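Please fill in the sequence for the structure shown.

STRUCTURE ENCODING:
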């Protein structure tokens, strides 16, 4: 999946619905219009690109607490792939972060 692969509006809708939020509830919390939430969920590419990572981050933070673990994981994988991180890269990075210090 390349960097230019779009963020999935369907996945964002799934996150919002699992969080039991209306489009208006989410829009108010993020600070955008309900129409913008609708455009994002309907994969309006220009809307998604114009808003960028900050809105997607807020969307995730607001919805993730109430979304299922499977949906949170799917969203995380999707975003990592969107930004060009391969499974191998993530695996290597996790090993780096969790390896014991050489000084211990």
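FILLED IN BY: designer on duty
SEQUENCE:
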């Amino acid at each position: 999946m390349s960097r230019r692969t779009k963020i999935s509006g369907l996945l964002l809708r799934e996150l919002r619905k699992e969080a039991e939020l209306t489009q208006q509830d989410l829009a108010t919390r993020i600070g955008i219009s309900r129409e913008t939430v609708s455009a994002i969920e309907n994969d309006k590419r220009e809307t998604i690109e114009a808003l960028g990572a900050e809105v997607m981050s807020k969307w995730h933070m607001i919805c993730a607490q109430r979304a299922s673990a499977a949906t949170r994981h799917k969203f995380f994988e999707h975003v990592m792939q969107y930004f060009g991180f391969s499974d191998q890269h993530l695996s290597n990075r996790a090993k780096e972060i969790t390896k014991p210090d050489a000084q211990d």
